[in-house]
Amino acid sequence: MNGIKAHPGRAAALIDALSRASSHAPYLRRLARRETGVADALEAGDADWALLLAHAPADAEISVAAKLRGEKRRLALALAIGDLAGIFPLETVTQCLSDFADHALDAVIRAAIVERTPDATPAGFAALALGKHGSRELNYSSDIDPILIFDPDTLPRRAREEPVEAAVRIARRVVELLQTIDGDGYVFRVDLRLRPAPEATPLALPVSAAIAYYESSALPWERAAFIRARAAAGDVALGERFLDTIRPFVWRRALDFGAIGEIRALSRRIRGHYEAGQRFGPGYDLKRGRGGIREIEFFAQIHQLIHGGREPGLRAPATLDALAALGAAGRIDPADADELARAYRLYRTTEHRLQMVEDRQTHSLPKDLTALDNVALLDGRADGATLLRVLRPHVERVGYIYDALDAPEDLTLPARAPDLVAALSAAGFAEAETAAARITHWRGGGARSLRSAAAQEALEAVLPGLIVALGAAPDPAMALNRFDDMIARLPSAINLFRLLEARPPLARLVCDVLSLAPTLADMLARRPDLIDGLIDASALESPPDVATLAHSFARAGGEDYQSLLDRVRREVGELRFAQGVQIVSGTRDPLDVAGGYARIAEAALDALAHATIAEFELVHGRLLGGELLIVALGRFGGAALTHASDLDLVFLFTGDHLAESDGAKPLGATHYFNRLAQRVTAAMSVPTAAGPLYEIDTRLRPSGTQGLLAISLDSFARYQRENAWTWEHMALARARSVFGSPPARAQLDAIVAETLYSDRDPIGLVADAVKMRHDIATHKPPAGPLDVKLMPGGLVDLEFLVHVTQLNYRVGFDPRLGVAIAALVEAGLLPESLPAAHDLLTRLLVTMRLIAPNAAEPGPPAREAIARACATPDWSALLAGLHQALQSVGEAWRRIAVEPGER
Fold it and tell me: Which of 498, 578, 504, 584 is nearest to 537 (CA)?
């Protein structure tokens, strides 16, 4: 531990923090196992040395992106543990993360320029940091929102290349280097939509055009955004000259009544948009909820905009600095400034804890009480209830202070249009005035997609029908909120509005989806074009067979490999979205939808595996007499997936394991097929510009994570005969070949049959299964009260019951769980109640993954949809049926899962 200085006083706090992180934050636990140097320094009590190690020079041969990913991992670990130990205050944590973002941006800008023009001096291209990055307040999982500008006169470019072309190519490369995900993660997610008119402007703006926009056309919210702007990377001098030029736009010495009204309206819209469904308690949104982070930030920014033009000392970018300056100047009550600052520190610290768990950009307290307890324990508190008690008085006080913004008589806004409020109330909105404020916001061009005259015309045309559709949704306020999120991401809403105007039933269907299915709503927010796929009535039909789907996914003509990966991701996303809509709309049985999900996944695997093999053979050639064989296990093997299912895969190969491929870069058989399996896994799992595809899980392969990714069929057979555990044979009961030639599949089927039909000790079989089920219950408890997979008597118990019975009596083998249960019932080995129990549990699982993915009991609007999908009259009948199903499975499992002595 060279360089580490032991600090006994700090060591205890850091060791305790490491222990909490290991127990309650899987992301930090993985970092500690990987970044052992940083972890060792922290265990020795030297947090400062751990921070230095985070920035240690990397191997010169490593790419700039790989260096930055490693540096971010080490920095995240050092800061998180120092934060949990109470050694690093909030300001240290946020500033270190923000400084690293500056460093990363600068490094990739230089790399992008040097790649294109190696002999040029990197200049003429700058990144302006906005938001929390600009104020040096980044959190653990923040994205960054830079505005990229360039100087056409000094930007390095190639011969005969226009400056804007060069700048756009540099910008694309900057984004690619920062946010491309590989096995080492990513550096930062990048959002360039804060630039002027992003639907029409290039990714990087000429500095003169940017100045002209902000001096003549910018909106009030853009003024607020530039309170926290600074030149962060690249040609910093260029960035600072730009900010100096537009400073009068941000900090106006005179503020007229109209500008004050716009600022007030913006604050009302934020409250109106996020208040519904954001009451304090489990699920509370720390960022957007009433009395949360956003209200503190906006409270400060409104007062800065009002007074900062005449008082430069109030122009502090950071929220805590701004509150202190406003309080000291008497522009806000000093007591309020102190209370807001204390609340802000608590909120941001809690927000960090939420994000430390799995490096997710989340701001909401978990709805699930177990998950809430986990966050509280990570924070060093007794439980989730304690955390809520600590937060509650701050939330109430911040909400009260923020509400005071509406008090002054001299700032009264024009009254809302009474006819709009009446129409919304008649349509079914319980909070019609809040909804009216949102629509008024649209009519004012508040969203970028609504600023053109054509967009406003399309809005007015669709609005009467849209209000009716939204009001008829099971939860009108939720549907309106999610519709607002969707149009906020569109470059233009014209086509969407015209489509919904022309097809009122489609508008109703979209509103139902937005209201009921958060998973599908998130997909729509990322890809509003998914609505187009619902125009054709075939979208609500069952997907075709695997061969037909695979043919449609297959490489077309001269399509390159990357284009194929993107296209398959888009087409699979459209099909999976349509499958989910079928459940929400009640047009298809979730059991059929589960089969459709599985066919889509199998077809995508077939198409991408063939294309990946073709690419691989171009470099490494073929291995004569050998081929890749892919086996599906778990729900994929059983041909019944949910929307959220990952794919359990095992890779095998045939032929001589001593053979060598015949390509330009030959490989031995084992190396060849292991590398090929890695490529196929990446093709199926790595996110591209078109988004993600599937999570791939290969841990069920022989020897698990300690074994090779791909082994020969002979080795697989030998392992099953001599080394496999009981649970591996149970998993094999759902094995199904999903890629490979008929002869190779036949060989695998013979090995599986030999394994499953072999003699075994019944007592030992039951004892092993009982122990494994107990271990699962201990280490992976139900995620919520309706987790029908993991709760006692649920699907896991049913699977164990079926597989133990199959292996014990050597009958009823079929990868499809429902078919296997029917065969065992017919053989008199399982009770006749189990087929119905299986169908109800599976329907509920598939439906809940869409409508209530956290397995919590949903609100009244969603209950009706879930009950309908599960073929029950109402929610009470569904719960009664669920109780009966759980009881049937539980009793059957207990009858065979007795102690060996009792048995």
Answer: 578
